[in-house]
């Protein structure tokens, strides 16, 4: 009897071990390819919103006050005025797709960004985390997190220096 029980237990364990559930984590998926295309578009200044759902919401360094995909593209166009060059580096990029317990599909990526300020040619490197939720192959939510402090401080310094130079040029009354 013990042998039959042990045989049944081993058979049940072997059978359950062979059962493949849905893929919950991968580093190769159509959604990851979409995010890689989005990153490539950003680097080439191709501002395409076709991979976003019409109702998508984008959050940069916040979880409040979302913007639309077209507003996100406008944001990138406006900030481009500050840079002689900018883009994500091609090395050390990490991408993963996960399906949550609630069945949501997310792509996470960790990237290094490099920009050169147009006003003084200072190079700035920033690690960035981006995460995208997908529904039916389209991005419905995007979150981007990075520390902009170095850029903000450098732009403030450039502005202060320009103001000082302007004041020095004004004639004394």
From TrEMBL:
Signal peptide limits: 1-19
PROSITE patterns documented for this protein: PROKAR_LIPOPROTEIN
Phosphoprotein as UniProt keyword: no
Keywords: Signal
Protein name from the UniProt record: Nuclear transport factor 2 family protein
Organism: Flagellimonas yonaguniensis
UniProt lineage: Bacteria, Pseudomonadati, Bacteroidota, Flavobacteriia, Flavobacteriales
């Amino acid at each position: 009897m013990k042998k039959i029980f042990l045989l049944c237990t081993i058979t049940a364990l072997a059978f359950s071990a062979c059962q493949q559930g849905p893929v919950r984590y991968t580093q190769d998926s159509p959604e990851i390819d979409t995010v890689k295309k989005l990153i490539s578009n950003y680097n080439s200044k191709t501002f395409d919103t076709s991979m976003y759902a019409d109702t998508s919401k984008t959050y940069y360094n916040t979880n409040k006050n979302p913007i639309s995909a077209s507003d996100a593209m406008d944001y990138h166009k406006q900030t481009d005025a500050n840079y002689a060059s900018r883009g994500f580096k091609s090395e050390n990029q990490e991408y993963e797709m996960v399906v949550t317990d609630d069945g949501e599909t997310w792509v996470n990526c960790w990237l290094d960004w490099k920009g050169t300020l147009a006003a003084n040619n200072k190079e700035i490197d920033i690690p960035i985390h981006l995460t995208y939720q997908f529904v039916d192959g389209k991005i419905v939510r995007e979150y981007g997190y990075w520390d902009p402090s170095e850029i903000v401080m450098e732009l403030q310094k450039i502005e202060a220096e320009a103001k000082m130079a302007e004041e020095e040029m004004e004639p004394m009354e």
